[in-house]
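Might I ask for a little of your time on a matter of protein folding? The record follows directly beneath this note:
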Amino acid sequence: MDAFASAAGAPIIDRAAVVARLRADFGVSVHSISQVSGGQDSEAVVMRAVTVDGAEFAVKVSRSLGVGGLLASAFLARRVSSGIAGPLLARSGQPFSVVDGRRLSVSPWVSGRGAYETGMDAPQWRSFGSVLAEVHDVQLPRAAADQLPTEDYRTPAAASTRVLDERIRAEVRRHPAGSDASPTGALIREWHAATGSVGAILTHIDDLGDELRACTRPSVICHGDAHIGNVQLSDDGGIWLLDWDEVVCAPRERDLMFVLGGVLAHAPVSTRQQGWFFEGYGPADIDPVQLAYYRCSWALQDIADYAGRVLDRPAMSAGAGSQALELFCDLLSPTGIVRLAVDSLQEIGRDVSVAGSRCGGRP
């Protein structure tokens, strides 16, 4: 394989270019390098590199050139007692390099098992809570903090989802029978069945954002993607929080959403597991409006991503298109994030029956 591909199935970077840049910019001479499967970032590729002297590294190439997450994780690795593998510094002194216009970063490889595949026991949930509490308590230096995005309660995926709704309606007009057995046909049927739920989220997301922008809520450093799919369980029983690309200064609900029910349909977080987590994290006063906003925003982000991949599947591999359809269906399942988002809207008194036959939004 000469090129590594993202979860969307498109080649993102040439293998030889990665190997050359690792040697030139990080002094890492690679014996072997292979792509790590399982990630769903359509803009990035993660690889496992073994050097000529046997050391192992996680190598990430991303279309995003934002470096705030790398700067934050480099600082946090020195301040948090355990659980964060900071990035290596390049010869430039920065925790990244650039290869073919894409960001390249390197960090120590953490051996062990993924928490998503194996689950976590009570001590591991407590450790997860302790690590995240330490992260939320850290004050970044101004130079690093200035490079982090700050929560603005705007959800670009709302507009993307409305565009997708128009595209799907156009597909229905072209194929009114709806008998197409392709991933696109299946997506159309699933989308139609979920119109009420998706429409309710779209109806309220902008107003929730306006409401939250008008009030003051303390912000902390948030990992931004702290679900158990980004937790690695090391061989000695420790936990490691990986993938810091989504770091943001935001209210703590941005991270706690991933524990309060979770966002992964096949790994919902039970009440018992939440209890273990908060034994490590400590008491937290959860704002239900913040939680509702973040669940709705996350749901729209995933809807737009996975549905877009299915509709654009001619540019993708057949396997990637089918996987995207499966992930989209997971969002709509009883344990999926769409269901949790609608439940949150009901809990804060929003009318989830307001969406009509079209996906909702402001007039």
Remarks:
- The first strand starts at residue 3 and ends at 5.
